[in-house]
Structures are given as structure tokens and as C-alpha cells.
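Summarise this fold before class:
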Amino acid sequence: MFKQSLIVTVAATIAGAATVQGADPMRVKDLLSDGWTILDKKETREEHKGVAPYEHLTRVVQVSTYMLGKAGKVVECRIAYDSQQETMKESCTPKQ
């Protein structure tokens, strides 16, 4: 559990940008600093085929999904860390 929390903390700190409601690129960290609150959080783990030359290994992708809210607006953010490719991606999408 500590490892998952650490990944989420790192992801929220250094993940790539996402666009929220036509504003400047935003991240979970930025939204929280701007007064948004976490309404819901889910942690999942996806397993995929490995990428050459490691196709014999399972590629694990740790996904954290946040629902954030502020002033009646809701944004869903997804942070994914790919263990084999050592990449982190973040995207945020406004919800109606």
C-alpha cells in the first residue's frame, strides 16, 4: 500500500499536463492547490504484455483516478504509471 501511495504522490507531483475547461494545462496537484477537493479516488492495477526485449515480463500500469470538485464543477483526472516503460501520464476531463 505504501508503494501505491508513493506512486500517486510522485504522479501528482511530476505528471504531464492536462487541460481543464479551456484553462491553462492543469494537474491534480495544481487543482488541489487551487482549492479543488477530492470527491472520490480509485486505485487500479492493469497488466499488459511486455514490450520487446522484455515481452516475457508482465508490464504493470498503476492507475489512480480522481474525481475533483469545486463550485459545482467536477473534473475526472487519471494518472497512469507504466512500470516497464517508466512513463507517467496524466489527463483531466470535465464532467457534466
Summary: The longest helix spans residues 2-14.
